[in-house]
């Protein structure tokens, strides 16, 4: 099936892109298909445009659906707006001829750090919905649980009313790196989801603090996702059919990712990894950037952007205090130059992204899942 045969896109997507044949669909359909077939959806955080062609080609070639996502924070250090992000993802899928492999566009980490943030996040949700986002993640996990609940209840309402997929969060991701302090506990998760459902908010996914971090593991720190804890949390929220969203997958072995589906993980976020590919950084076998003692990076001359551009970016990072994980801020500062890299660099970034995306699709058991997404969409419209 394809869009030309049956336009099952959400109404707000049809309104924004009335003539598009790119299958931008409700995130609920991707999650339903993954749940039915015991698979996981790969969610890719896109900070610059360079790796997207390879990811789209891999999705088309394998029949694996994707969630393309951008966090509220990433809108602050990339040159994307909500509207331009959706426009770019849709147009890339059109340009590459995708009419048959459904994808969703996800608003990652709509972060609320204090109750005073609620109005601005509410406005951002409205802007993103108008832009064509089809999945949303409310993240009020920085606050104590009662305030998290209150903010989530208020902000999730328009998502539920639109019938789009919803992720909520309990336990700040990476709050205490290398420590069990701050880990989400099963009894908290049971209370949180139960209270949301009582008040008419039924999420599809729960993001938790289970030992992952966002970004690169520096020095002696290492990946520490606690799968037994994850399974315990998943078990207590099963009465409501809610699954787990795993954040911070960069630096995790493919072998471990392959096992995620056995612990209730239905969506996995991969972000910094694609940035590493774009910049041409050396990585270990788990996709974590190889770093120096002073949190510098090793650039591979045959990977990513030209060495001259990387050297300019790194000199800027040192001068402006954007070394270590803050190299992400180069995505905005050097956006024009990243867009204009030579064709040979674009080709090698695309090829690298293609190969790595295929490996991740294999690990997430999502190859060939496109047909099941179409079936889920048809069921949703009946």
Automatic annotation (TrEMBL):
SUPFAM superfamilies: Aldolase (SSF51569)
One GO molecular-function entry: aldehyde-lyase activity
Gene3D superfamilies attached to this UniProt entry: Aldolase class I
Coiled-coil ranges from the UniProt annotation: none
Gene Ontology biological-process annotations: carbohydrate metabolic process
Record Pfam families: F_bP_aldolase (PF01116)
TM ranges: none
Protein name as it appears in the record: Class II fructose-bisphosphate aldolase
Record organism: Desulfoglaeba alkanexedens ALDC
């Amino acid at each position: 099936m394809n869009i030309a045969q049956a336009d099952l896109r959400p109404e707000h997507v049809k309104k924004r892109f009335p003539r598009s044949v790119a299958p931008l669909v409700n995130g609920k359909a991707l999650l339903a298909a993954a749940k039915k077939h015991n698979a996981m959806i790969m969610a890719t955080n896109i900070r610059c445009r360079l790796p997207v062609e390879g990811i789209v080609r891999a999705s088309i070639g394998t029949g694996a659906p994707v969630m393309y996502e951008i966090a509220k924070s990433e809108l602050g250090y990339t040159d994307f707006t909500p509207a331009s992000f959706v426009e770019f993802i849709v147009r890339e899928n059109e340009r590459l001829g995708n009419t048959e492999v459904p994808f969703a566009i996800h608003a990652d980490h709509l972060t609320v750090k204090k109750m005073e943030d609620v109005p601005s996040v509410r406005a951002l949700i409205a802007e993103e919905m108008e832009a064509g986002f089809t999945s949303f993640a409310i993240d009020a996990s920085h606050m104590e649980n009662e305030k998290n609940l209150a903010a989530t209840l208020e902000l999730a309402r328009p998502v539920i009313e639109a019938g789009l997929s919803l992720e909520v969060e309990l336990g700040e991701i990476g709050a205490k790196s290398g420590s069990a302090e701050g880990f989400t506990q099963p009894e908290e998760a049971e209370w949180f989801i139960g209270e949301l459902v009582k008040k008419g908010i039924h999420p599809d996914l729960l993001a938790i603090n289970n030992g992952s971090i966002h970004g690169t593991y520096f020095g002696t720190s290492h990946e520490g996702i606690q799968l037994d804890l994850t399974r315990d949390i998943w078990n207590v929220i099963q009465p409501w059919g809610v699954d787990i969203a795993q954040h911070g997958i960069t630096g995790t072995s493919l072998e471990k990712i392959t096992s995620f589906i056995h612990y209730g993980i239905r969506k996995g976020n991969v972000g910094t990894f694609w940035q590493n590919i774009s910049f041409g950084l050396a990585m270990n076998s788990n996709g974590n950037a190889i770093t120096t003692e002073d949190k510098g990076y090793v650039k591979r001359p045959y990977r990513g952007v030209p060495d001259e551009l990387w050297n300019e970016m790194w000199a800027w990072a040192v001068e402006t205090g954007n070394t270590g994980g803050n190299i992400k801020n180069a995505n905005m500062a050097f956006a024009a130059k990243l867009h204009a890299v030579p064709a040979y660099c674009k080709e090698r970034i695309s090829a690298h992204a293609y190969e790595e995306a295929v490996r991740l699709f294999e690990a997430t058991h999502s190859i060939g899942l496109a047909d099941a997404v179409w079936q889920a969409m048809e069921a949703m419209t009946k």
